[in-house]
Amino acid sequence: SYANDHVGKLAGLLFDAQVEPKPHQIDAALFALQTSYLPGVILADEVGLGKTIEAGIVISQFWSERKRNVLVIAPSSLRQQWQQELQEKFLIPSMLLDPKLKDEQLASSTIMRSEVLICSYEFALRHETNLTRQWDLVICDEAHRLRNFYTRRNKAPEGNQS
Questions:
Q1: What is the CATH number for 13?
Q2: CA–CA distance, 145 with 50 (Å, rounded to integer)
């Protein structure tokens, strides 16, 4: 099974990490990693159980496999926390996408740099075409917020409707 094949790999990854994951976090990360045939997974633990750690373990696995075209979309207020946790707990460099520097930051020649890209939902919505590419991994933190973006985007204008 995937779990049996990858527990050893995860142990090697986590040896260098500055975090000691709990068993449920390892289980969640293995679940996410073993479902590569699906278009995605939802990690929906209760608040405070360490979903960021679970996602960090998944990112670490992708990183070790040289799948480094990774995007994290998070609420604006959590972007710097993501950057800090990736660096401090997993030793993975990242870059906060800046609307003023987006063309340079997202240029195809620099996208293959060894950095996780982090942006807000607002950035992703405004610069959707700039983010259209083949990502190895996309993490949507607080993904329930996507509902609000799609609702706002697809809402019919109020007023005179026929």
A1: 3.40.50.10810
A2: 19
